[in-house]
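Good morning C.,

I know you're traveling, so I'll keep this short. The sequence:
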Amino acid sequence: MNFGIDRLLADPTLRAPLDGKRVALIAHPASVTADLTHSLDALIAAGINVTSAFGPQHGLKGDKQDNMVETPDELDPLYGIPVFSLYGQVRRPTAAMMDTADVFLFDLQDLGCRIYTFVTTLLYVLEAAAAQGKAVWVLDRPNPAGRPVEGLTLRAGQESFVGAGPIPMRHGLTLGEMGHWFIQHFNLSVDYRVIAMEGWEPDGPGLGWPQDRIWINPSPNAANLNMARAYAGTVMLEGTTLSEGRGTTRPLEVLFGAPDVDAKAVLAEMQRLAPHWLAGCAIRECWFEPTFHKHAGQLCNGLMIHAEGGFYDHQAFRPWRLQALAFKAIRALYPGYPLWRDFPYEYEFERLAIDVINGGPDLRTWVDDPAATPADLDALTAPDEAAWRAQVAPLLLY
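The tokens, ready to paste straight into the viewer:
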């Protein structure tokens, strides 16, 4: 199978429209070809006139570890071209940045989750291109979480850098497909094309991620496929006082970690409340001591998710509900626990982080209501999921 970058490099007819054009590349460390050459090097070696590059959150090099850690603009030491940060002084490319190229190649590996900020960066690039009369090409890559859709749709007025529009948490699209949705939803007039993958079967071997391609971290804490599958749930831990495993070797692969929570008791309560929400993976008690971030230097008891190997059922695994259930169990066992983090998240200073992440307060309200049941959350969420599937069905490329 071939990703968009591989097809562009292999087919002169696909590259022909770039002749005589100034080209910009939006990329990160996972922007590589099949032979692991970085896309910037491969495009320049192919004779494409790359005049600038852009890095998203965590930077072109992917060296910025945490959220709200910005990357400065710089000059590429090898090629002498400007490298602009879209997570530094600005989030949206400025007119001056857009003036550096005619065609913008977007080659970011995504995780298939609304909150992963590369999705919002795509929207901002499309909007800037529409305003400046530039072209955007997405060099498409797999959605490692595959086609399953899950979670509440972001509510009107709840938009942020981690919520570009009325999208469910686990959206089931590739970035190429998402670009078509953005153009349709926001009525953008922009020269847009997708260099589609060849041979990607989202429900075939690998279940989202092709078995013949190795995993490269698109961001520092996206260490493997297990994390990518779990992320649409575990990312909600960023809105809590619980550890998501940052400061360990397996971040965002745990349902929680804390020095003052009994993980076995939480798992038993989860199994009592909604055993069917634990399907599709294995849950294992674990212990860890974060070297930095929440609960640094403290021994934490937690639950590890294994959405991999023989434990993984692609259709049954529902990470957003699984994580919601963990919160519900903790709230039931520890009613007064200070679960929701109250410090700023992605430069949102008014709303609670958990509400920013979920695109509204509905999930938090459900967790905190002792009378609310798993069936109540299902009844709230299922219509959103069904509506999204119907809305995007005509846009699917694979």
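Safe travels,
E.
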